[in-house]
Design goal:
With 647 residues, the chain is α+β, with helices and mostly antiparallel strands. Among the domains are: 1-54, no CATH class; 192-308; 493-646, Trna Endonuclease, Chain: A, domain 1, CATH 3.40.1350.10. It is 49% helix and 15% strand. It contains 14 helices and 15 strands. It has helices at residues 27-71, 76-109, 124-127, 186-190, 192-311, 315-327, 384-409, 446-449, 459-465, 514-530, 575-588, 603-609, 619-628, 637-646, and strands at residues 7-13, 18-24, 339-344, 349-356, 365-371, 376-381, 417-428, 433-445, 469-470, 493-494, 535-539, 549-553, 560-567, 592-597, 614-617. Strands 10-11-12-13-14-15 form a six-stranded mixed beta sheet, sandwiched between helices. Strands 3-4-7-8-9 form a five-stranded mixed beta sheet. A two-stranded antiparallel sheet has the order 1-2. A hairpin with a 4-residue loop joins strand 3 (339-344) and strand 4. Helix 1 packs antiparallel against helix 2 and helix 5 crosses helix 11. The longest helix is centred in the middle third of the chain and has 120 residues, at 192-311. The protein is elongated, with a radius of gyration of 55 Å.
Amino acid sequence: MAYRVMWETEVRHEGLGKYRHIRGSEQYVVEQKAAAQKLQWEEQWQRKQEIDRRGKERERAANQKISEREQNALEKARQKEESQRYKDERKQEALNRDKEAKDAIDTLKNILNHTLNVNDAIDWEKLKDTSKFIEPLPKLDLPPCPANQPIPIAPVPKIVPMKPSSSARDKSPTKSFAKYQPVFGFFDKIIPSFKAKKIAAAEALFSQDYTAWETECFKLDESDSAELKRWEESKNSIDIRNAALLAEWERNVERTKIENTNRKSWWEKSCEQARLKHAEEVKQWELRKEKFIEKQAAINSVIDKNRENYLSNEQGAISDYCDSVLSNSIYPDYFPNEWDLDYNADTKNLIVEYALPAPESLPTLKDIQYVQTKDDFKESYLSEKESESIYDSLLYQIALRTIHELFEADTANAVDTIAFNGIVTALDKTTGNKVTACVLSLMTRKEQFLQINLANIEPKACFKSLKGVAATKLIGITPVSPVMAIDRNDRRFVEGYGVADSLNEGTNLATMDWEDFEHLIREVFEQEFATSGGEVKVTQASRDGGVDAIAFDPDPIRGGKIVIQAKRYTNVVGVSAVRDLYGTVINEGATKGILVTTANYGPDAYEFAKGKPLSLLTGANLLHLLEKHGHQARININEAKQSFQNK
């Protein structure tokens, strides 16, 4: 019976018109193969585009040179130089194309030697995801601290002018002043009237001056009073202005202090919000990093498990490993690069059905020369006999190369015998239709094959010496019977059988046969999913902790593929079993994983399952589920432990 992988994907390249099915029992391996195939095809597509571009550039350059020669016919000196350069370029182009043609033919002739200096064993460590979590830790972005507004400068008060002083006054006139003393002469002394007149005149002068002085003093008093009034008014005005300026300054000072306080309060609040936001961003970043590491660990765990399965000669792992070896083998772009494998662990026999290139897909250009007199290229092609010889040799080389790569990469010594069937899909020139036929078949043992020095053999003779079967001329696509063909029957799932109806109140699930327990879990979940049209299938019994059952829930929202593992345990289930389930969910590409046990789970198991698409069902949950669907049973851990000890 053939081993059929569960995971399959299709890859296409519209530009190259290529299509391939990629299969494998592990999702990550299939995805890795698909990505590698896409990358390889994309590189082929880039090379093809580059060749087409160069061809167009050559054509465009040639047309341009011809046009330039026609337009510059009168410029003989320059025309001669351009003509010579053009010829040199054409000669170089011919040399380049000739080299490409010869290299292409040489590659076909030496397709076997290409792999002899290559270590074909898979480097498991290179398959692992060793990338770093490159997302930088969120930075704390605090707003800049606002600068305090400067305190307004106190206003300079206007100076009050000095108080005006009283006007200066002359001394009041007195009679003792000389000018008011009459001077008497001789006659004044003898004539009394003369004397009286002079006395009266002096008194009159004094009275006049005194009155004038009093008048002047009155005027000065009035002037001083007006000046004092004006000074008092000015002083009051200045005092009021100074008081207003001082009050405004005090208000501005208070307003500035409040504004600075508010700014500082806003900044402190913004900083606190920024710190809270940063703390949340760091928390989310740590969660993303943790998920990245967990996913990476799960993927790498799958690779480690695949390596472990491979080294322990697990059938599916050997098949996947051989598929990876062939995927790493580099052939020209126009080769099909398709194959199918079937490995039998009991016989250590590997059957390889390998798609070989069709005759019409191979290059036939032999050499190219530049004919200067005609400004053209002369192309020579392989003769029909040469093409037949190269094609026959190529197919024999591919068969030997494929067997060599698989045997050399077999570090686990899991393959003793390889049966190689070369399949060609080509155009039947007699009908005009495409036909597919096995044109050569070879079975050989590893011990015998590794004794051959492939560097010095003639491919066809070596193939025949190994008792290979092939038509006389492979180019004729004459079918031959394969030495051993792949059995296409599917054995991923095994037929389930009923267990639940045999249960009763006395049935202790903890002592049930482990295989019966797995079928019971399949049966009860089949009943659980039946209402939504779901389907549950049990996988081959292996007791290896892998997938025990697969549920397919058609619900468009909560449905999908669900991995179910059954653990008939009598001890607490630790985190390792839950971690293995998570890796299996990722590997299978499932939407959910369910772990069912007859016991309980430790706190580390529940902690790991947080935030992941995992459901952990204890023995109590299982009994409830059975009762829901009309089945009675019990779980007695102590009784089970005693029973196992007695055994």
